[in-house]
# Entry
Amino acid sequence: MWFSRAIFDLSHELKAWGAEPRFEVGQVVARGFADLGFEEFQVLPGPKILSLTAGTMSELPEAHLHHFFWIPSVDECVKLSELNGLMDCRCVRDSGRDWRVTGVCCETELHAVARSLHEAMLQMTLDVMRTAARVKTGSSAGNVGNSI
# Structure
């Protein structure tokens, strides 16, 4: 497994807030299995996918696309967050142990702390998408985010 459970959980929740999976060559997507947990894949030409867990290549059936979610990279998290209103984003190493990401979205200060920069940026992206949705709709409903 390449990613932590927290990264899978955050990425999976991002889908509910509008971050749809991207099935472009090179993108990393994942899906959950009741008996396995999560499995991550890299999208290949064809359309095919390479399991980063098992190392096997398979066809990407169109009927199964809705089961997948996107695992954005740190750079993709920054772009997605900025598209949804994040400003003044700062990343610092906290006590040489954790990553602290701070920023402002819709006049709200946001903070995320995690062991990895990837996890902290995913948390920040999720918080930005939630904040932007609340401001836009006046509620906490999902599925209103932008995709890059």
